[in-house]
Amino acid sequence: MIKTVNRKEQTRKRHRRVRLKISGDSQFPRLAVYRSTKHIYAQIIDDTKGVTLASSSSKVKELNLAHGGNIEAAKVVGADIAKKALDKGIECVVFDRGGFLFHGRVAALAEAAREAGLQF
User: Fold this and answer.
1) In what side-by-side order are the strands of the sheet with 51-57?
2) FRET partner for 15 with CA separation of 20 to 30 A, picked from 42, 83, 96, 106?
3) Domain count of the chain?
């Protein structure tokens, strides 16, 4: 019998591998991204204290997004998380792609955050 591994389990394995290499602290917090089929989420996390410093998602009513599962929504969320981070004095972060490939919506969120002034 061949053991099959589903996509969600493969993503979890990739995320564990990524998290072994990166960690956020108070100087360089971690920008974690989660991508579902309908929405995209971003958090800035200080791993040493275990607190979320800022968060944004395509579910936020103030962003006025009709559909949260596309590249345009990812760009808006990336710009929003960068604005919230800069308001709290966070300029540099470590990017955590969450086991997802750096392509499509994840890359669009990262590029929008960079254009809004966040460095990573």
Assistant:
1) 51-57, 40-46, 30-35, 94-96
2) 83
3) 1
